[in-house]
């Protein structure tokens, strides 16, 4: 399904008392594997985004592979310079650019999506664990929010301009124990505690899709 169809996707997973987990083959007819070929040590992979026939990978740096697993470029520059990483933690791809957030530098680094060449970098407000760009706004995940708000959206024209917040109420804090992944235009979030999921795209939210 396309990212925009996520609200229509339904697959009921019934967990028994022993919390048996379904296998991949219960969810899909087939599973294939792509060997990522590179001579550069990648380290632990934190995120993969597939866009326009390419796989963009965040590990110890930024990597790009075609769908055959061939490496197009690998950037593992470490340091505090504007074009270097300390800890890349999230990435998004839009309009021919790769946006990589460095959680230790609190900066968004921008690279060319085809060559990996450095384009720009700028500071991200607050102390965020992750930050993404979807073409319309910057979506940031607060690491330790004092106000109880876990997701904040900022204007694409001014990243210091807060435009919206999600899950600001204290009673919503429990839903945040789970996983977060990036789709083409927003975040897909799954709560382990409440067996629910939702999507945030910067302008609206598809909340609490029940997972049974």
Structure explained in plain terms:
With 212 residues, the chain is mostly beta strands. Helices cover 2% and strands 42% of the residues. A four-stranded antiparallel β-sheet has the order 1-2-3-4, with no helix packed on it. It has a four-stranded antiparallel β-sheet with strand order 5-6-7-8, with no helix packed on it. Strand 14 and strand 15 form a beta hairpin. 27% of the residues are buried. The N terminus is likely disordered.
Strand and helix layout:
Layout: H1 24-27, E1 47-51, E2 54-58, E3 62-66, E4 71-75, E5 88-94, E6 97-102, E7 107-112, E8 118-123, E9 128-133, E10 137-142, E11 151-155, E12 162-166, E13 178-182, E14 187-191, E15 196-200, E16 205-210
Antiparallel strand pairs: 1-2, 2-3, 3-4, 5-6, 6-7, 7-8, 9-10, 10-11, 11-12, 13-14, 14-15, 15-16
Q: Helicity level, as a percent range?
A: under 10%
Distance between the termini: 19 Å
Question: Which class do the helix and strand fractions yield?
Answer: mainly beta
Which spans have pLDDT < 50 for at least 5 consecutive residues? 1-11, 13-19
Radius of gyration: 18 Å
Q: Largest sheet, described in full? A: 4 strands, antiparallel
Listing every helix as H and every strand as E from the N terminus to the C terminus, the arrangement reads: HEEEEEEEEEEEEEEEE
Shape: globular
| Biggest sheet strand line-up | 1-2-3-4
**How many strands in all?**
16
Mean pLDDT: 77
**Helix count, DSSP H or I runs of 4 or more residues:** 1
Instruction: Give the amount of beta strand, in percent.
Output: 35-45%
